[in-house]
Amino acid sequence: MARRRPRWYFSFRSPYSWMAYRDLMADHRDVAERIDWLPFWEPDAETSGHLEQAGISLPYVAMSKEKHLYILQDVRRLARDRGLEMVWPVDRHPRWEVAHLAYLVADELGHGPEFIAAVYRARWEEGQDISDPAVIAYIAERLGLDPVRLSTACDDPAVREHGLGSLNSLYRDGVFGVPFFINGYEKFWGVDRLPGFVSSVRAGAA
After folding, report:
1. Which end of the chain is more exposed for a tag (fewer CB within 10 A), N or C?
2. Is 2 contained in some domain?
3. Which residues are in the DSBA-like thioredoxin domain (predicted)?
4. Dihedral (C-alpha) 62, 66, 70, 72: value to the nearest 10 degrees?
5. Is the pLDDT of residue 23 over 80?
6. Whole-model pTM?
7. What's the pLDDT tens digit per position in 94-141?
């Protein structure tokens, strides 16, 4: 059996995933170009129903108030250490399929990295609501992609089927949070584990 490529699971929702993306692209672009980028999101009721039928249970746990308050403090500290200006978005009616399934379409069209960069910028630097199809349509248009196709990806049965495959992949990989990096049998969870993952990928390449 062929060994799977190194990979990292990211989420547009997570500020830690955003910071890992910034670190990866700023300091480890050679590794970024040699790994698979796979989305992680909290599924809506329709997706959850399909996962349940397939016997897939994702390890997502609702966040406590205490953890939320800690994350607010921790993220501000980490952003300051990186010299990043961030805006904490307000998710009034989050539907994470909107952005993450649009990513799958953009990736199939060969524009996955550009889409990721634009969505992270919209959410964490501009405070936009990426669950709003109009925001995704605007991003797609700026990238020269079909705004209707990307903004309605969450309503396309074929794209949803692709999304189920992505969630099944993270289930099989034992992913329980983001950012999550895997190289062979080695797993690295958290933005502070990125250097170890980078070293592991580079050692394998050497």
Report:
1. N
2. no
3. 9-199
4. 70
5. yes
6. 0.93
7. 999 999 999 999 999 999 999 999 999 999 999 999 999 999 999 999
Cross-strand pairs, 182:
7, 187
Q: Which residue do the tokens 């399909």 mark?
A: 50
CATH of the domain at 37: 3.40.30.10
Q: Is residue 43 part of a domain?
A: yes
Q: Answer whether residue 37 is part of any domain.
A: yes
- What would the mean pLDDT of 151-162 be, rounded to a whole number? 96
CA proximity to 43, closest of 34, 54, 32: 54
Closest by CA to 39, choosing from 154, 193, 186, 155, is 154
Phi, psi of 8 (to 5 degrees): -135, 140
71, 77, 80, 81 alpha-carbon torsion, rounded to 10°? -120
Residue 1 in domain: no
- Average pLDDT (155-169) is 95
Q: Residue 91 is part of which domain span?
A: 7-205
Return the SS3 of 189: strand
